[in-house]
Design brief:
With 466 residues, the protein is α/β, with parallel strands linked by helices. The protein has a domain of 263 residues: Type I PLP-dependent aspartate aminotransferase-like (Major domain) (Aspartate Aminotransferase, domain 2, 3-Layer(aba) Sandwich), CATH 3.40.640. 35% of the residues lie in helices and 15% in strands. It is built from 16 helices and twelve strands. The termini are far apart.
Length: 466
Amino acid sequence: MQVMEDIADLLYQGGDERLDILDNGNNKYHINPFHYQDLFNRGSCTCSTLNPLTAKVLESDIDFNNDEELIRLRDNHAKRLKHLLNYEGKDAFDLIFAPSGSDLAYLPILFSKIFYPEKEMLLLLTCPEELGSGSQMAYLGKYYAGKNQFGDATEKGDDVNARYDVSMARFKARNDNGLIIKHTEDIKETLAKYPEKSKIGALVIGSKSGIEDDISVIPNLNKEAIWVVDLCQFRNSKRLVNHLLDMGCMVMITGSKFYMAPPFCGVMLLPKSLTQRIEQSEIKPEYTEGFDKIFSKYDFTDSFPKLREFFPSQLNKGLALRWEIALNEMERFNEILRKDSLRIIADWNDVIKECIANSNHLELMPHQEKTNQSIISFRVKSRFGTYFSFDELKIFYKDITADEYEIGPFKKIFFGQPVKYSCGAFIRVAIGAYNIYNLLKKDETTRFDFDKMLMDIIDERAGHFI
């Protein structure tokens, strides 16, 4: 039992302070990854826990204190991801691991510095208000947290490397009415406006509310920028992943959103052509200085022998455990027929929309049809008819997830945390891989009964919120 408890402790290690368990027994998302037995979870867009199947990893015979075994495990994770995401007979990408999507956001500016060492950088970022603040700071070359994956203190907001000169052009996700904005022409104009700078295009397919950017801008402008596509929610097909890689894009994914592993576990997929370009470039210590406090040698697979020389030989046990959990979930979900999972998602989407339409205090966000079906975003109204502000939603969210309920066998509920946009805020419900796996086993007539109860609770609580 002690060995299992020691392994469980690794769930909270090997990342920034978002993993920390606070005095109330939860992390900053108001959840504890180890408390899953009585939880009804519809918040895979925010944070997830273990589940009865992934908890079995804690009973595995993996020796997390054996460095050689951990190195083999990391190599095995890379092979399993390649097997899941490559088409048969293909090897389209290499991998760089990281504790979170925020850490992955440092990589595009590192590569831009290697390719264009004398140029200032311009990063074009879409959907900034629906990305974590950590990712935005990382894209600017700033420390986004108070500690790194090795447990060392970092000064939040300080430059990772003072030689980096990064400016950012932000393209907000929604207008004042909550409508999703298309940025294609604005991005083209901005790229043309700064010919002297090295450019990084950071698009998102799967923001907090499931927004999917128009990627048609990439093929026409591929030579003008390094492109990175944020797929961190990872509610997408293998076909899209390979399409983006074929266009020369870096692709950010995680195993801790749709695939519902405990937070955090990220990986960057790099097309082979980009790997080759990096390894053929001159890499000087002044380019990687500071980034050796963010990445380990073992975050880079063997495809990066030259780059690996600049990083410390430290192993992240917690990240290895979380990726083992994520891959177990990914491989199990991969056995489900795609038509069956899409049918469940569509049916669930219809049920939640109907609940919102029949509610007294909930209102679907505009352009919901333009977002991923496995996330539904909605505003909340008070009994006086006014929308909850972002600050009010934060209090509402914290209160409602802290209380106990009776939803069949479940006593606690969890859903997607509040998101702020220019003139408002919303909350979300989302289903992930383990949810779909369970819903498929339920009788069709009662399949979504607990979801309806969840929406009734949110609606009823909104009417009594002061």
